[in-house]
Amino acid sequence: MRTQVIVVGAGPTGLMLAHELRLAGVSTLVLERLTEPNPQSRAGSLQPRTAEVLDLRGLLTPLLDGVPLTGLIGGHFAALPVPLDCTPWQTRYPTPVPVSQGRLEEFLEQRVIANGGEVRRGTEVLAVSQTEHGVQVNTTTGDTLHADYLVACDGAHSTVRKHLAMAFPGQAATIRSVVADIVLTNRPVGTSEGGRHFSEMVRGTNDYWTVLHPLGDGVYRFMFGSLTEPSPPRDQPVTEAETRAALQAVYGPEIDLTEIRAASRFSNASRQLTNYRANRVFFAGDAAHIHLPVGGQGVNLGVQDAMNLGWKLAAQLSGQAPEGLLDTYQSERHPVAAGVLANTQAQGVLLNPGGAAEVAALRDLMTGLLRLPEVNRHLSGMVSGLDIRYDLADGAEELVGRRMPDLDVVSGGGVERVAGLTHAGRGLLLRFDDGGSAGVVGGWADRVDQVEVKADGWRGSVLVRPDGHVCWAGSGDGDGGLGAALTRWFGAPTGR
């Protein structure tokens, strides 16, 4: 069998990438070793930038399916008791959005299949080989698959990464902890079904630290670790005995388990591939980088990896990509992940409930700093991903490289949002009363939409890539470098 792209892994990263590829008409096959979706709750909400990315494709509203976005509480940095506020970042989603990772995966898989993609479950990769012109994959189902490109989105213990003998440098795990979905005999005192900041759910006593987070219908996500006992191996099954011991040590002997629905171990390992590409194989999500899972940053990072790579890979396959476009995936996404690894390592130090008195003093100091608007803005932008600015041009206008705000604009069709103009996954030239760029897009009309709009405080023109990041801004007579920007990001105009 031959397809244009094989995606290995049906998590949020792989499925988002498959969605982007199918949107561009690329034949796509997703391979997933699990026969059924992972039943564990995992990330319980989406960071603001993930919500924006989904909104760019019209996916967020049906994903929410009527879930209200009012009364939500801001995210956290190292479980400090000051909510992160993303309002200064000009976003419609100033707090994490209450959509679980499981729900996101289910929804994206349905969309991929509905758009003509294939998700083949129960299929594990046995071997990967490459030639100058393509990739060959052998699977446990006896198939030999061929593709132009392969993207490994198969998680922290990536099979593809191991088959290609890719080094995964970084910091090895020093602690391992447990996360479990559990049902309790009765609700612990001081807990509720929602409306509490993450910092209120963290407790540490009797040689344990715990987080007990209600999922609804009497089910809780329970995270815990021992402050004195050595960490069990990663593959050792989580037992009722160890879960009960942690639960009762912190919440009292009257609390007991009814059942453990799902459980796994996680660590503070922090690693990143040096190169996200090995010839015709790319790496994204946890296959490219791992870190302490704090604040839902892993899903945020992976979905944006997919959004960045998808349109570039599609352009390459269509023959329209300018030289070096695929190389920008590495140059743009590698520094972003390195920043996340750094901030999660810092949070790991602050989160340490068994740390010395100096850690408590540092937490008090950081709590005071977080109450300062500028500090809160800085950390909220970092954790949410709203502060990302790709280095697209030296000395460029401040907006270039940043995410395009989802403005309310007036166009020929009336009042609409910028996000509503990006559902097709094409480039977008927004002309805010600017005659200088009129007609310039003609040679790229098959790849870039041009829309005349009005918005308070905005003048000139802005060129937006399919991933929602601005790649040119200007105004005045002539094209002001717009033609060069179109060529750089969207290839030569039609007819050349």
Structure description:
- The protein is of the alpha+beta class and 496 residues long.
- It folds into three domains: 283 residues, FAD/NAD(P)-binding domain; 92 residues, Alpha-Beta Plaits (2-Layer Sandwich); 83 residues, Glutaredoxin.
- Helix content is 28%, strand content 24%.
- The strands form five sheets. Strands 1, 2, 3, 4, 5, 6, 14 and 15 form an eight-stranded mixed β-sheet that branches.
- Helix 1 runs parallel beside helix 4, helix 1 runs parallel beside helix 7 and helix 7 packs antiparallel against helix 8.
- It is globular.
- The mean pLDDT is 92.
Summarize it.
With 496 residues, the protein is α+β, with helices and mostly antiparallel strands. Helix content is 28%, strand content 24%. The chain has helices spanning 12-23, 48-56, 60-64, 101-114, 159-163, 240-251, 297-318, 327-351, 357-370, 373-384, 482-490; strands at 2-8, 28-32, 118-121, 125-130, 135-139, 144-152, 170-171, 176-184, 202-205, 208-216, 219-226, 257-267, 270-272, 277-278, 281-283, 289-290, 408-411, 414-417, 427-432, 448-453, 460-464, 470-474.
